Amino acid sequence: MKRFLTAMIFFALLVGVWQWACWRGFWSPVLVPSPARVAEYLWEAALSGDLGRAVLVTLKRLLAGYFIGIFVGLPVGLLIARFRFLRDTIGMLALGLQGLPSVCWVPLALLWFGQTESAMLFVVVMGTVWSVVLAAETGVRNVNPIYVRAARTMGSRWMHIWIRVILPASLPFIVSGMKQGWAFAWRSLMAAEIFVTILTGAGLGYMLHLGRELLAMEQVIGIMFMLVLIGLLADKLMFSPWEKWLHHRWGTDRAT
Amino acid sequence: MTTTAPFAPAPSKLAIDRVSKSFTTSRGSVLALQEASLTVAEGEFVCLLGPSGCGKSTLLNLVAGLELPDTGSVTADGKIVREPGRERMMMFQESALFPWLDVLGNVLFPLKLKSGLSAKERNDTAHYYLKLVGLEKFMDANIHELSGGMKQRVALARALAPNPRVLLMDEPFAALDAMTREQLYGDLQRIWTQRHVTILFVTHNVREAVSLGDRVVLFSPHPGRIREEFRIELPRPRDINSVEVAAHATRITRALKGHLQEGATAE
Ligand SMILES: Nc1ncnc2c1ncn2[C@@H]1O[C@H](COP(=O)(O)OP(=O)(O)O)[C@@H](O)[C@H]1O
Ligand SMILES: [Mg+2]
Known about the structure:
The complex is a heterodimer.
Chain A: H1 2-23, H2 35-48, H3 50-82, H4 84-98, H5 105-113, H6 117-141, H7 145-153, H8 158-169, H9 171-195, H10 204-213, H11 217-250
Helix pairs in contact in A: 2-11, 3-4, 3-6, 3-9, 3-10, 4-6, 5-6, 6-9, 7-8, 9-10, 9-11, 10-11
Chain B: E1 14-25, E2 28-40, E3 45-49, H1 56-64, E4 71-76, E5 79-80, E6 88-91, H2 103-112, H3 119-132, H4 148-160, E7 166-170, H5 178-195, E8 198-203, H6 206-212, E9 215-220, E10 225-231, H7 243-266
Helix pairs in contact in B: 2-3, 2-4, 3-4, 6-7
Bound molecules: adenosine-5'-diphosphate and magnesium ion.
């Protein structure tokens, strides 16, 4: 609670300084609108329903791509950890592609799928899947072999070992991989939404792009604010509970 | 105490017959165990003693079924050991408890793999064993919250829970401080007398071996071999600091040094 308060005061101060600077006329209001102006834009966009629709469209794309990335990436990562042949082939591929900035998938997606939702999904999945693959693989390869030996003496076999021992034992790696995957998915979706203008729905990235075209800086900054907010909320809702549980169980929070 | 049949002697619980095992490493092949033979009777407490690298863990893993011998055979209850089985449970130097489960979850793990138990029976069994090792109050604790000694108690409860007939212990107390260790010697002897489970206990501590075992089996390294056996006929519970234990320990230490020197001059 105290930390929440500290954060709140910090942000309030930041906005206060910004508003004050605008009053003093440090910058042209066209280039740097005041916080009040940004808030006004957000309020109007929310009332008209444009903002809500954009948020929904973006979240739908993000979650779809992200979960496909996880559902494909996790098993592939486990298989790679298990079979050396796959590690030397698909593992190398994953390592290479993971280093590729996700914007690079956009031209390819446009050529293959045109201005469609599929192009969007493709970019997000490509941005997510490789880091999930690598995290799962690293996680499995870092499992202390003594856990597997202990489980085997207790009568655990193949699938049971994988599901009840190796998977939970590699959870710290997998969760951090999923978090990284989320960050990549988010970045790649924005890249896609800015470059791929499609008729099936305007996401936040498109609105950002539009703000620039219209020279409406309050829209650009307003949308950026929404993006930050969604990022923070996702972290708090999706990953914090897992991380807290991991720290609590594994006892890893005592180091910090 | 035990009644022996007039003709056929009672079948031994474990029979290790001229077992050899080698490992290939980057530096070549290591003969971890050479022609080791040992029989263990039902309910016997046998300590495997020797400096590190003489194949004690290898032998234990072979009995557990975690490894298979190159030559020779390991039989348990007259059946060749080909894979791990719940009737032979193992305890390691590192507790090998699962950090993603709490204490109760760890003890339940082997029980959930055992068929024909209701949820209530599993729970009751887990509670019973946690109580036996004196940790029923720590059921909900996380593993990282336990001391080293408590971890090994939970590991003992987990190993006993599926009711194995053989307990394989690989230096389970080596990482603990002397005081905790002595408590655990007491507990282990009490539990062993109550349940009469067969125990193979690996250690490099001579006094530990003498104060726990009915028999102490001496190993020597390069290659790992069984050299000599000592029967320890002292009443229980034994105190590791007693004169009698010290006397046996002196005798065994002398033998151990002899084998090591012999090995050194032979090389
Ligand atoms: N999995 C393995 N791979 C390679 N070498 C091994 C392996 N297990 C044991 N060894 C080697 O076999 C020898 C005996 O090992 P071990 O049975 O662990 O001895 P101890 O338990 O008596 O210390 C050692 O030289 C060890 O390095
Ligand atoms: Mg060893």
